[in-house]
Specification:
This protein folds into two domains: 273 residues, Aldehyde Dehydrogenase, Chain A, domain 1 (3-Layer(aba) Sandwich), CATH 3.40.605; 168 residues, Aldehyde Dehydrogenase, Chain A, domain 2. By secondary structure, the protein is of the alpha/beta class. The protein contains 15 helices and 20 strands. InterPro entries: Ald_DH/histidinol_DH, CoA_reduct_LuxC. Its EC number is 1.2.1.50.
């Protein structure tokens, strides 16, 4: 196998000031400051050791470490790991929060909130329900399950442990916990490529697991490293079917487009593409001051999740209303958006380009109305067509439509979650939303935590992760 040569940088001021982002490779923590990188969003320096690509590949001649570990034992280990992650004295998690607060767009309080709530996934009932929703017969994860078809032909089926590369997102440390857990449930050998916006959390989680048992098969199956996305010297070596079965990719359009060039026979892509979520609010919201306030409050909750960094956050609200009614609604929505829901304190300000775009709209009285301030605490823009930029940092675009069915032309395969008010209108809308390409319909205000084990991005992920293997054994009685 090709080995990556030295990728070190000369000593610099950045090197002295950069936070360490160690690697975790199959139970071992690898420290070093051989390379200096800059985070995607804020340009903050962090240091990583040099890469040894040979250490990242588990030979196909060796069985996956988790293959014969019972699923029940894996779940017990994940539950114990979750308890350790919640411990306020966990030095790995606390150091991770300190470092992430420097590189993340999210305020520190939001990062702490994400880390705390992400561990709720490591609950025995949650993990079992995820498995049961993804696999009609979970025994296939532990053994070769016999099956005889109607012609008497016998088979044995197994959801075999895959070899996965995960390209993790940088906007939610909770996805590292979830990805580790899901990888363990399918008994995979997994390599996690961390994001420059979060090169710390996944390693912190794995180090916590290693302190429980460095030789546990879960720990021995996992590695977490960082390299700059698009680095051909790394990706042309690792992204091969000789070493891995599937690439599980989260991220923006550029990240997904980059990995597509490596996909081919034997090396599949499981893609969680960039998505946009929306809200749909019916005319019923104007029945009274109370219903207007209720709808705006639910709407604001969906906009504000994770400081509007995640795909699940609402960015556009389609409102059955006249422009005058839209102004009333947007004004209340802006007030609700500006409520500090997580103790985030001083938020990150809007970047200059977005702020300037919104300020220009504020001056266009005929077609737009802007409520709130462009200070990162919350702003609502009323319009009759969606704005041509991506709302961020607690920004909502309220688009007035004569009927919610008129909004269906804006729904496509990049539409993830749709929050609906009043709730009783969901059944009449859901077939049209599905036809347009949307993947999830919820009550307005409930876009956050999804029902356990439900499809994500129109698929059952764990079912896609595994290598489905059949052993056919002739006709019964022969």
């Amino acid at each position: 196998m090709n080995t990556l040569t030295e990728l070190s940088s000369p000593p610099s001021t950045d090197q002295a000031e950069a936070d360490s982002a160690p690697f975790f490779i199959r139970g071992q923590v690898i420290d070093g400051a051989d390379q200096i990188h800059r985070s995607r969003d804020l340009g903050v320096s962090f240091a990583t050791p040099k890469l040894d690509l040979n250490s990242l590949v588990h030979p196909r001649t060796e069985l996956p470490p988790l293959l014969n570990t019972p699923l029940s034992e894996i779940i017990d280990f994940l539950v114990e790991s979750g308890q350790r992650l919640c411990d306020p004295n966990n030095e790995h998690v606390q150091a991770c929060i300190d470092r992430m607060a420097k590189v993340s767009l999210a305020p520190r309080a939001v990062i702490e909130h994400q880390m705390l709530h992400a561990t709720e996934y490591l609950d025995k009932k949650v993990l079992m329900e995820v498995v049961e929703q993804n696999f009609p017969n979970p025994k296939a994860l532990d053994e070769w399950v016999p099956h005889t078809d109607h012609q008497g032909r016998r088979s044995f089926i197994r959801a075999y442990a895959p070899r996965l590369i995960h390209v993790l997102p940088g906007n939610s440390p909770g996805m590292g916990i979830r990805s580790i857990a899901q990888s363990a449930l399918v008994k995979s050998v997994s390599l996690f490529k961390m994001a420059s916006a979060d090169p710390f959390s996944t390693t912190a989680f794995l180090r916590t697991m290693a302190e429980i048992d460095p030789n546990h098969p879960v720990v021995q199956s996992m590695s977490a490293i960082y390299w700059r996305g698009g680095d051909d010297a790394v990706e042309r070596v690792l992204y091969r079917p000789q070493y891995f079965d599937k690439l599980v990719a989260w991220g923006g359009g550029d990240a997904i487009n980059n990995v597509m060039k490596y996909i081919g026979p034997g090396f599949q892509l499981v893609s969680f593409d960039p998505k946009t979520s929306i809200s749909m609010v019916g005319r019923e919201a104007f029945a009274s001051a109370e219903t207007l306030a209720e709808a705006a409050e639910f709407n604001a909750r969906d906009v504000s999740i994770l400081n509007q960094e995640a795909c699940v956050c609402s960015r556009f609200t389609f409102l059955e209303a006249t422009p005058e009614e839209g102004d009333r609604y947007a004004e209340v929505l802006a007030e609700r958006l500006r409520i500090d829901r997580t103790g985030e304190g001083t938020p990150r300000p809007l970047d200059r380009e977005l702020k300037e775009q919104i300020d220009v709209l504020r001056m266009m009285d005929d077609d737009y109305a802007v409520f709130g301030k462009t200070d990162g605490r919350g702003v609502a823009i009323r319009s009759e067509e969606p704005v041509d930029f991506h709302p961020l940092r607690k920004t909502s675009n309220v688009v007035c439509v004569p009927d919610l069915m008129e909004a269906m032309k804006y729904v496509n395969v990049a539409t993830q979650t749709v929050g609906v008010y009043p709730f009783g209108r969901m059944p009449a809308l859901r077939d049209h939303l599905a036809s347009g390409g949307a993947q999830r319909v919820v009550r307005l205000g409930e876009a956050g935590p999804a029902a356990i084990g439900n499809p994500h991005d129109a698929m059952y992920p764990l079912h896609r992760f595994v290598h489905w293997m059949a052993n056919e054994d002739g006709v019964e009685g022969s």
